[in-house]
Amino acid sequence: MNTRDLDYFKILVDKKSFTEAAIACHVSQPTITAAIKRLEKEFAVKLIERDRIHQRLHVTRAGKILYQSATAIQLKLTNTQKELAATAQREIRFGLPPIIGTAYLPQLAEKLQQLSLLSLIKITEMGSNALLKKILNGEIDLALMASPKPLTYSDLKAKIIGRRPFCIAVSPKSHLASLNQIAFADLADEQFIGVTAQYVHLKVFQNFCKYAAINPHIVYSAPDISWVKGLVQANLGVALLADDAILPTDQLHKIYLTDPYPERFNISIVQRQEYVLSEAETQLVAELSQMNV
Description:
Blueprint: H1 3-15, H2 18-25, H3 29-43, E1 48-51, E2 56-59, H4 61-86, E3 92-96, H5 98-114, E4 121-125, H6 128-136, E5 142-147, E6 156-164, E7 166-170, E8 181-182, E9 191-195, H7 201-212, E10 217-222, H8 225-233, E11 239-242, E12 253-257, E13 265-272, H9 279-289
Parallel strand pairs: 3-4, 3-5, 8-12, 9-10
Antiparallel strand pairs: 1-2, 5-13, 6-13, 7-11, 7-12
Helix pairs in contact: 1-2, 1-3, 1-4, 2-3
GO cellular component, one term: cytosol
GO molecular function, one term: DNA binding
Pfam family, one: HTH_1
């Protein structure tokens, strides 16, 4: 099978016109037609039906199935090209959320340096939701990621190495600062500092709100965890954060949640299911697996 035929087929389905598909692909219309005929002959099914009266085309059920598969094939080919290109270099394309990096990477740095791995690691730092897209798209190959529940994507291999609770961060000046525990429902009237969707915290916050049947006001959604902590320190609101996000040096008070709701800050080592680790990456995974999380 010619993968270019799949490219033409996908664009035809998207454009819904042989003429527009040919223009988009910078080829003649007969080239598109011939590609579709080759695919139909190879799979022994009808992929496209033309309505010449109304000048429309209809994608058959078989065509819709092939369209979905073609999208997955293209992604795998793109990822394979990136992986093959990366074998010429020794760098480790590694994703790391700010919270996990700040809390755990320093404890590994000396050992990684001894193994001559530290200089090979090219870190992409962003929230776990954003890292998930990058690892699926082949922009990074390994990541430490957080998730409220175990990752179950068929395209990913994920190994949980630790679970941490979520808590409420408040300013020492807050009227809540004398508390060490609280039920989430008791925060219904509080002003919250939130985070943008690249972090798992947003979904966890929404789940806790649904569980407690409350709808507290979010006064600001910050693009970075350090911004969240700064605004909470200024007593402009409270925040739901992973326990490890609040460092001893932060001028914040932790209040642990008494709710039995099973949301946790699951920390996992993640790679694509079919990705073949290099020797250096295998060493890194081994060291990450032994971290005290």
